[in-house]
Amino acid sequence: MSISDIHSQTGMNTRSIGWPQVAFGVLLASLLLIPLGIDNAFVSHVFITICLFAALSTAWNIVGGFAGQLSLGHAVFYGIGGYAGVILFNLGVTPWIGMFVGAAVAAVVGMVISYPCFRLKGPFYTLASIAFLEVIRVLSLHFKDMTGGATGMMIDLRLGWTWMVFRERWPSLLIVFGMLLVTLGVAWAIRRSRLGFYLVATRERESAARAAGVRTVRVRLIAVAISSALCAMLGTFHAMYLTYIEPAAMFSLAFSIQIAMFALIGGIGTVAGPLLGAALLVPITEWARASLGASALGLHGFVYGIVLIAFVLFMPNGIMGAIRRFARSGGKAAVEPAQTETGPIVAPAHTVAAPDPDRPGIGQDILKVENLNKRFGGLHVTRDVNFTLREGEVLGLIGPNGAGKTTLFNMISGFLTPDEGKVSLRGVDGQFHQPTNPADFAALGMGRTFQIVQPFAAMTVEENIMVGAFYRHHDERDAREAARETAWRMGLGPLLNAEARGLTIGGLKRLEVARVMAMQPRVLLLDEVMAGINQTDVRRAIDLMLSIRDTGVSIIAIEHVMQAVMSLSDRVIVLASGEVIAEGRPQDVVRDPHVVEAYLGKEFAHAHA
Amino acid sequence: MTTFLQVLLNGLMLGGLFAIVAIGLTLIFGIVKVVNFAHGEFLMAGMFVTWLITTRLGLHPYASVIIVVPMMFLLGALTQRVLIQPLMSAEDDHVQIFATVGLSTAMINLALLIFGADIANTPNFGLRTPIEIGPVRVLSGQLYIFIAAIILVAALQLFLKNSQTGRAIRAVAQHRVAAELMGVNVPRIYILSFGLGAACVGLAAVLIAPLYPTSSNIGTYFVLTAFVVVVLGGLGSIPGAFFGALVIGLVDSLSGFYIGSDLREAVVFGIFLLILILKPSGLFGKRMTLSHLS
Questions:
Q1: What ipTM did this prediction achieve?
Q2: CATH number for A412
């Protein structure tokens, strides 16, 4: 389920209206024009239902698709909107105001119930969402004074635009079509904005997203709030349309499943998918319900279930997935990446100068690590580690396996809290700060890579790098441009539109660096970016790191490739069993008997002493 | 005092009922690592078949166990083979969730198509007769369910601990790839396990049918509580599910009596959410791998 739907194939600077956009526009327009043209109550009803479900499903998709949190309790928000609308209606408040009240309540409820559930994954989030739906349904049955209990609530008879209640169908159609347009517009805007990229990044790889400066909890809460507010407004509309509501219908699990199902069938995580799913399925079922009547009780649900199973088995990416595959195989040339004019920026072919700890250009301290201690149970993984990093310096961090290098990285980027000691980072304001979480570290200009690469698998190379670039650029266009530039610089230019999951390990390592470089960090933590890549690439990577260094970035690199450590580092720290056992110029450190012993054992050290 | 004892006993009996429904669910999750959202519908299917056999052939409902349990085993094995197996390697969880959700939706509505919206009462053959135990009383059918739940838990534990197949199942549950490398036929174990889990719920269906009216949505009613029980007891743990069920049975019964019968579901699901959020390994969960946590 690549997140890039229609628009990514056309790109930003080559944006043109292709046939998918035209087809989508025609479909959308026909949702309004067909029922207005035919002017038949049943046809209008069917189209109102399509618009309603399409809009609900589009709103669901912001949480279920973009953020990847499969809620089967979204009827909660629809129901809240419905009840808010009806209760206020009967108090004499127009639903045009009532729907915003409902939206506000739903947004708050959505955030309150989602916040504790974010650490639940996959089916467990789904279970929690169902449980919340049940609790709210039971409560709505219990508080009869407010909700009317199981008998439900009728709206008082008041007609006209003020009250959103009409004798004819067409005004309702206009309203729900307008709401569908708004919902689609919101989904589209989110999808191509920074928020959308952050949501998908969080879905794909939470830790990598956090390293890229994404405040994962906050972006998810925003998504939930928007999604639930939209569902509530649709709920208000539907309550006015039905003129009668009851808990069993408003807070129904089957209804929630339907909302989610249309998104899956259309293409989960895409903007157009939910509409396609609803437009395909709703007419079939409404027709079956009308023409077969009571004899077909359960028929439409049965068809839904079978269609859902069939899609899951044979077309898990939905209709949009099929369209995309067709478009790709049909016009290969047309979807070839629109490459920018920016040519590859060749790293300066340095003749590697002997590193010098007092090389001019090295400035003041930028990172201070003081008395860092960490224990995992009985294992003391970091013992009293102290060091500083200076501006523009390259610090090599070496040590045998299990020495605690990555743990150290996790602590100086906010992923792990040290038991004792502190990490301070100098901000652009010249002051030292002590951030506590990855996003705060990123905000001060800290970027890191992961030893085990963490690509956003379903995103393209370009989109992966854009997640980093969004850190500096708020506008999608700028971020895309910056990402392309970075990609060419990292030798990923030709792969811009390839999905990250298809990259080789060397490509993934470069992608990892490219993503962090797009953040334009001031301090860069590189965790074994050269492991497992070939000699040519190592040499290229060394040149690249030197060019990064020369732009004034301070680097700490964990590396086992000694060629790189020796030629790059101004200074080397050796870590063994959680302790710093040596520190100094690379050529001195490798001769240090403690270091030799740590790597090769006592006997070897003695034999060569 | 007698009332309190009666409420307590009712809670225990209800716990036994929840346990026998939940055991299959936890078994499937523990081994195949799939949350079967159609579990309740398996129960519903089993209850309808029991009703058919009992009313059409005039047999004692318990006699239908000979047909229902193998039938449910087949249904479970088939589900695994046809629906879940192709999705085992799917990268996104949502595919597996939707697969069983789709199955659940299809089954509920198929039942609605075949049997209509009316409820089906299985003749109870005296299983609703109260048995007096001192000052309190239980229905004989409830007592049998309770005993059956204990026997089922013990039998499954013995099977998993001591038999060769049981060892293979546990190996697969702990590490799929390592088990495969040791020569265990993993797909077969999965099919067997899913079948076994479904067979357990088949047994539950036979025992429950004489006590509860069957309808197309009876599964939802039971399975939501079964999810609570399974999470409470630590997912994948069979004894955990049993004790979790007793706890939930007692909570259900006590809150129904002292807080109000219309709010007992809210209490049960409230506890569920608290456990999910605060202690997702379950009340009795040992340090199991928390595959559902990041």
A1: 0.90
A2: 3.40.50.300
